[in-house]
Each structure stands twice: as structure tokens, then as C-alpha cells.
């Protein structure tokens, strides 16, 4: 079976979707997948399902949810195989799966390769692996799953890993000189993540490297105004220095003004021969 968590929760077998529909059963599946090949205790299920308001029947109800989950998967793989995938193991249950069966381990493996390639300064390979990793995402993590405290924590962690993967790929693209190609994506990212100064810095840099200095300066002013308005803060030292570098570069490319006094410049214009 194949399982997806980097987007809507999904379980498939040979192209057939067998994701459970019941919200509580989905929660149980999500917990088991996030801790694949590890025993998830009944207390963890109960905390996620009911928080501090668990009913007296919490244990038997959880066991019922696991029963329905096995039935849901069993419709595609058979009851015996479903029992092997989700095994009873004190003090709870364990979902057995290979890393290739779940999108999160696949994502982690590709990102590790991308990081190693970046360390070796093979930015083309780094960008390639990061792109493959990001292609596994089909939406917000655990979309369609009601989240208690435990799943909420996992979702936040996954979102941070997604941002880190984006940063890794964009960094590789920048090192490859693909500044123009990523400007559109960076504009979108600073809209979605308006307080992420790293994305802003990359947009400003990409615009500057693409020869769009005025737009780069406008982008700096935009993030400066935003940070002041939302947080009452000035841009980070890194952003400030980037702004100064662009200003310095802008002054270097301007044609120098004549140093002759105004009167002498006027005299030169008047005395120029008429052809």
C-alpha cells in the first residue's frame, strides 16, 4: 500500500483509494503513519482523539476505530494483509510499512541528498533532488484530517520542513544563476509568507542580479514597511546590508557628473562650433 500525508491524507493500493472516511478513523491512521514502524500507545490515541475530555469507553472506542481502519484497508488488500499492516502490539498498535510506501520518508531521503549535494557544491544535483522532494507535496500536510494537539504539532513541523526544502532549492537555483527564472515564485512566496525575511532577501537579490535594481529597491521598501507595521521592527542586518550593496552598485553604474563649474560648462556649450 501507499500512503500520503504531505497534502490530503490518502491510502491507495494499486491505484484504488481506500482512505477511511470517518474523521476519527482518519486520525488513527494519521497517527500510525506519522509513527510508522513504532508502537503507538492507547494513551496517545486517546489524547489525540479526545484531549482531556476522554469518555469512560475511550479504550474500547479506540479499538473499534482500529477495527474499522483495518476493514477499510482490507477492502483493497484483504483482511489478512490489513492485519499485518496494522498489528496489535502492547501497549497499542503499530503500522508496518517500508519507507518507499509513505511520502514523508521519501521526502526526507531526497532532502538529505539535496543537502549533501549542496555541501559538495553540486547545486544542479541539489536543485534536482529538492524539486523531486517538493513534488511530493499536494497541499497542506494532513489536509482533511481533524487535528488534536498531537497532530497539530506534527503538521507545524511538516510545514517548517516544507519551507526549509523551498529555501534549499531556491538557494541552489540562485547559485546556478537562475535569478530571472525564480522571481515569479519568490513574489508568490513573500505574499504567502510575508514575515519570512529570507524569502524577501532572495527576491531582492534575484531582482538585483537580473538587472532590475529599481524593483529590488522597491521590494526592500515593501518589506521594511511591512515589518514596521506588523512588528514594529526594522529589517534584519542581512537585509539592511543587502539594501546598502544595491545602493552602492547603483551609484557605481551611474555616469559621473562633470566636475567643471557651472559657468565653465555654459561657456563650453556656447563656444562649441556650429557644424
CATH architecture of one domain: Orthogonal Bundle
Q: In the CATH hierarchy, what is the class of one domain?
A: Mainly Alpha
State mean pLDDT (0 to 100 scale): 92
Overall radius of gyration: 28 Å
Number of strands: 6
Report the order of strands and helices: EEEHEHHHEEHHHHHHHH
Summed up, the helix count is 12
The CATH homologous superfamily of one domain is named: Winged helix-like DNA-binding domain superfamily/Winged helix DNA-binding domain
Residue stretches low in confidence (pLDDT < 50, at least 5 long) are 255-275
**Cross-sheet strand order for the largest sheet:** 1-2-3
What helical percentage do the residues reach?
A: 55-70%
Strand content: 5-15%
Tell me about the biggest sheet? Answer: 3 strands, antiparallel
What is the CA-CA span between the terminal residues? 87 Å
Amino acid at each position: 500500500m501507499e500512503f500520503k500525508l504531505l497534502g490530503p491524507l490518502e491510502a491507495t493500493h494499486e491505484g484504488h483509494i481506500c482512505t477511511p472516511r470517518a474523521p476519527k478513523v482518519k486520525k488513527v491512521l494519521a497517527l500510525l503513519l506519522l509513527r510508522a514502524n513504532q508502537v503507538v500507545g492507547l494513551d496517545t490515541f486517546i489524547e489525540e482523539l479526545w484531549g482531556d475530555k476522554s469518555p469512560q469507553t475511550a479504550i474500547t472506542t479506540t479499538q473499534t476505530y482500529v477495527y474499522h481502519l483495518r476493514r477499510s484497508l482490507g477492502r483493497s488488500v484483504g483482511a489478512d494483509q490489513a492485519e499485518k499492516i496494522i498489528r496489535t502490539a502492547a501497549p497499542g498498535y503499530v503500522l508496518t510499512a517500508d519507507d518507499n510506501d509513505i511520502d514523508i520518508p521519501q521526502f526526507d531521503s531526497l532532502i538529505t541528498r539535496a543537502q549533501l549535494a549542496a555541501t559538495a557544491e553540486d547545486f544542479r544535483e541539489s536543485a534536482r533532488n529538492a524539486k523531486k522532494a517538493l513534488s511530493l507535496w499536494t497541499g497542506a500536510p494532513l489536509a482533511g484530517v481533524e487535528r488534536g494537539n498531537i497532530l497539530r504539532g506534527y503538521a507545524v513541523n511538516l510545514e517548517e520542513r516544507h519551507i526549509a526544502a523551498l529555501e534549499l532549492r531556491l538557494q541552489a537555483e540562485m547559485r546556478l544563476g537562475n535569478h530571472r527564472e525564480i522571481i515569479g515564485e519568490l513574489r508568490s512566496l513573500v505574499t504567502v509568507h510575508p514575515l519570512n525575511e529570507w524569502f524577501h532577501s532572495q527576491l531582492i537579490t534575484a531582482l538585483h542580479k537580473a538587472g532590475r535594481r529599481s524593483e529590488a529597491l522597491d521590494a526592500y521598501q515593501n518589506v521594511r514597511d511591512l515589518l514596521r507595521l506588523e512588528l514594529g521592527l526594522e529589517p534584519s542586518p542581512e537585509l539592511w546590508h543587502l539594501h546598502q550593496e544595491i545602493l552602492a552598485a547603483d551609484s557605481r553604474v551611474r555616469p559621473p557628473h562633470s566636475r567643471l563649474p557651472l559657468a565653465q560648462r555654459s561657456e563650453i556649450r556656447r563656444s562649441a562650433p556650429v557644424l
